[in-house]
Amino acid sequence: MKKAVVLLSGGLDSYVCAGLAREQGYEVVALTVDYGQRHRVELEAAKTIAARLAHRHVVLPLDLRAFGGSALTADVAVPKDGVGEGIPVTYVPARNTIFLSLALGLAEASGARDLFVGVNALDYSGYPDCRPEFVRAFESLANLATKAGVEGEGFTIHAPLQDMTKADIAREAARLGLDPAVSHSCYDPGPDGGACGECDACRLRAKGFEDAGLPDPTRYTAP
C-alpha cells in the first residue's frame, strides 16, 4: 500500500484530510507537531483521530513559544470579536512552511511520496501560507531539496480542501463517516477543554455546520 504523510492538528480540517487520504488508498502516516500551542487539547484530539485513521502517528515536540509572535504561542489575547480582515494575530510565523518541511523529512525517511495538508479557501485572505501559490511553490521546493526528488522520485503535495468552504468540509466529514465530535478547533479553550465559541476558529466551525444543515456536536462555552 502506498504511504502518505498527513499533517494532523486535531482539527476538523485535518481530520477530513486524513479521511480523504485513506479513502484514496493511502496508508496514513500522521504527523502532529506539539509546538507549545495555547490550545493543547487539540493534541489529544489528534491522538484519537490517528488511532482511528493512521497506520503510524508521530507527535513531534518543537516549542515555537521560543519564537513567539502569535496569540497561539505568546501571551497575546485571542480575538473574540468576530472574523476580521487581514492577517490575524493567531497567525504563527511560517507555521505551514515549518510543518510541511517536517512532513517532507518524515515522508522521505518513511518512503512516502505524497503529503496531505488541510489548508482551505476560507484561510486564503488571512493566512499567507494557506494560498494555492504557497502549496505549489512548496511542492517545487520539495522536489529540488531532497535526494528522492533529485533522483526522480517526486513528491506531490495534496491540499484536497483547498477550494472547500467550512460547510463543504462538514458535509465531507459526514460523507466519510467521520465523527466531528472527536476533533477540536478552538484557539482558546477553557480549563475543561471546552470550546470558547467566540474565537475565529469556533465561529467558522459553527457557521460551517449551520450552513451545511448538519448538527454541530461541539460543546461551546458561549453560543
Question: Can you walk through the features of this model?
Answer:
- The protein is α/β, with parallel strands linked by helices.
- The chain has a single domain, classed as Rossmann fold (3-Layer(aba) Sandwich), CATH 3.40.50.
- Helices cover 37% and strands 11% of the residues.
- The protein contains seven helices and five strands, in the order βαβαβαβααβαα.
- The chain has helices at residues 12-23, 41-53, 95-110, 132-144, 147-150, 166-176, 200-212; strands at residues 3-7, 27-34, 56-61, 114-116, 156-158.
- The protein has a five-stranded parallel sheet, with helices on both faces.
- β2, α2 (41-53) and β3 (56-61) form a beta-alpha-beta unit.
- α1 (12-23) packs across α6.
- The mean pLDDT is 94.
- It is an enzyme of class 6 (ligase).
Which descriptors would you attach to this protein?
single chain; 223 residues; alpha/beta; Rossmann fold; 5-stranded parallel sheet; 7 helices; 37% helix; ATP-binding; metal-binding
